[in-house]
Design goal:
Pfam families: AA_permease. It is built from 21 helices and no strands. By secondary structure, the chain is mainly alpha-helical. The chain has one domain: Amino acid/polyamine transporter I (Up-down Bundle), CATH 1.20.1740.
């Protein structure tokens, strides 16, 4: 693959192209096979992940009813990040998304660090999601081996991503549709129950919000734990800006996705948390054991609710696997296109970076094997390293936007189709909020290890990126001298 070097201020063809990469040795580049309906539904369903359906139970158990405040606060931060990312991605659509923006704004080392950190995060997440989906399948079919289900899912989604990008789009379109229908149905049922209009139920009033210790039953410490849990539940929203580069109208797609992010986060996350803590006592053991959505439906006496939600969670996990294999392969391809990875990894065949797809899927499967072979040390180490990785990515997004906004206003103001609100004030607010989350992580024993592990990974990548940047600069200087 042709390699390109982007320096701060450079506006080379590599980052202006919608696909974000140059043509490969095979003579092709990433395709534009995603339709607008694919992108719209990916954006809509991308905010609904397994972390929302299952992981939110731990947050509720810690924060009580104040989990609504925690999700609203972290949701505001995510809205700001998505707005900043949307501004840069609409101005310069690229499959490398924030990695390309970081390289243009700060330097090659920043693009290297954020890009490979995100790739590592997605690959490990693929393994985790495969394990979660396999556990559901073995619950339905006892006696079947978990590893076989994981292998099956890996083969299916690796195959999906090896084919034309429209296949990925179709899978995500239907996965997202089912998730959206499920969450809307849950919200409708919940609102009817809160109003006392659901047959067989009585309006709970504010009893569950103010009883059992009040709105802040575990004080500010519980709220902090809930806030940290909610921040990481939002991970995955970035995929839409990666996918937009392979859509028919990348600028329009990004703009639409970002502009609707606010109501999607408000309705799906904050709205569902409000429904749950209003209907079910926060300290009900079923909230953490079964998951808050199953616990709520069971509380309302909805028949078969447990199995219904298991199907929804399975769909959410499979959707995340599919999207993460896609996102990891495109990020790797973009990094290689900019000379920041093994050349072979970035080769594109028929509009698809197939070597990157295989490598990302293989790494994800290795993570699954490690969960069986070394669950207490190597696998736990991997999990800790990705614990705060998404915050590192968001930090690079905000830092890049501070630089690129001013540069774009000077050089090509017509590209600012999406604009960050109250720039630069809200960008600095977002950066301060991220620093605040890092500080909160350092104060909690459980998250402190994750923070240190992610910090170690980030420093190692930054050093490697800096050394690569220096070596390439030295090589370029020698060529010029000769």
């Amino acid at each position: 693959m042709t390699r390109t070097t982007l320096t701060p201020g450079d506006t080379s063809d590599a980052d202006r192209r919608p696909d974000g990469v140059q043509a490969s040795d095979t003579g092709s580049a990433l395709s534009n096979g995603l339709k607008q309906r694919h992108l719209s539904m990916i954006a809509l369903g991308g905010v609904i992940g397994a972390g929302l359906f299952v992981g939110s139970g731990a947050g509720i158990a810690a924060a009580g009813p104040s989990i609504v405040v925690a999700y609203a606060a972290s949701g505001l931060l995510v809205m700001l990040v998505m707005r900043m990312l949307g501004e840069m991605s609409a101005a310069n659509p690229a499959s490398g998304s924030f990695s390309v923006h970081a390289e243009r704004a700060i330097g090659p080392w920043a693009g290297f660090t954020s890009g490979w950190a995100f790739w590592f995060l997605l690959c490990v997440a693929v393994g985790l999601e495969g394990i979660g989906a396999a556990e559901i399948m073995t619950g339905w079919l006892p006696g079947t081996p978990e590893w076989a289900w994981v292998a099956l899912f890996m083969v299916v989604f690796c195959g999906t991503n090896l084919a034309a990008v429209k296949n990925f789009g179709e899978f995500e379109f239907w996965f997202a549709t089912l998730k959206v229908v499920a969450i809307i149905a849950f919200l409708v049922i919940g609102v009817l129950a809160i109003l006392g209009l659901l047959p067989g139920s009585e309006a709970p009033g504010t009893a569950n919000l103010t009883g059992e210790g009040g709105f802040l039953p575990n004080g500010t410490e519980g709220l902090i734990i809930g806030l940290l849990a909610s921040v990481f539940a939002y991970g995955g929203l970035e995929t839409v800006t990666i996918a937009a580069a392979e859509s028919e109208q990348p600028v329009r797609g990004v703009a639409k996705a970002v502009r609707t992010a606010m109501w999607r986060i408000g309705v799906f996350y904050v709205g569902s948390m409000a429904v749950i803590v209003t209907l079910v006592p926060w300290d009900d053991p079923a909230v953490a054991a079964k998951g808050p959505y199953v616990a709520t439906l069971d509380h309302l006496g909805i028949p078969g609710s447990g199995q219904i939600m298991n199907v929804v969670v399975l769909i959410a996990l499979l959707s995340a696997m599919n999207a993460n294999v896609y996102g990891a392969s495109r990020m790797a391809c973009s990094l290689v296109a900019r000379g920041q990875g093994p050349r072979k990894l970035g080769q594109v065949y028929g509009g698809v970076p197939r070597i990157a797809v295989l490598a990302s899927s293989f790494f994800g499967f290795v993570c699954v094997l490690l969960s069986y072979w070394r669950p207490d040390d190597v696998f736990a180490w991997l999990l800790n390293m990705i614990g705060a990785a998404i915050l590192v990515v968001w930090f690079f997004v905000a830092a890049s936007q501070l630089v690129l906004r001013r540069r774009t206003e000077r050089e090509a103001p017509e590209r600012l189709v999406v604009r960050m609100w109250l720039f630069p004030g809200l960008t600095w607010v977002a950066l301060a909020a991220m620093v605040g989350v890092f500080i909160l992580m350092a104060t909690e024993p459980d998250t402190r290890v994750q923070l240190l592990s992610t910090g170690g990974l980030t420093l190692a990548l930054a050093l490697a990126g800096y050394l690569l940047q220096r070596s390439r600069a030295t090589a370029t200087a020698k060529i010029r001298e000769d």
